[in-house]
């Protein structure tokens, strides 16, 4: 795999989702757009990026009960107030657009969110599809701790970090074969739904 030596682009995602990706519990995220996005819908501005864990909006009512411990673990990340820890970089391997609740229901075994919450995301701005990204996630060699700047705040998907993060020595969280197995199951589940 060829990658850049460093990166300063990060995608904001719930901390529990970052934990689930880091532990191989899931390889996908669901995106519709941030409230403060310029165009109000989600765009992949680059297929490779860091994961920026956020805590706004996540709560136990939106997560399947079996992931409650993972949710609690996401709050115990050890970083001082006013700072954020970055541990993971990823690459988009597949993009799936979901337009129906049937498609969305087929994806339910592959993610941490309740069907009610995922369906709410699908119904928000109903003319826009829900974007499902399959992510190949890598753990950075060292945790990067950054001061949270005002530019990073708010309901937006993408942030440009003030400095580049070194990517040397990162390792995939899943083996190649396990990632291929999971991604194949997800893609097959969506393709088998009649339109």
Helix content: 10-25%
Order of helices and strands: EHEEHEHHEEEH
Query: Which value, in Å, is the CA radius of gyration?
Result: 16 Å
The gross shape turns out to be: globular
**Tally of strands:** 7
β-sheet strand percentage:
25-35%
Give the CA-CA distance, first to last residue: 36 Å
What would you call the structural class?
A: alpha+beta
Write a structural description:
The protein is of the alpha+beta class and 195 residues long. It has one domain (6-191). 24% of the residues lie in helices and 33% in strands. Strands 1, 2, 3, 4, 5, 6 and 7 form a seven-stranded mixed sheet that branches. Helix 1 packs across helix 2. The longest helix is centred in the last third of the chain and has 16 residues, at 176-191. The termini are far apart. The relative contact order is 0.25.
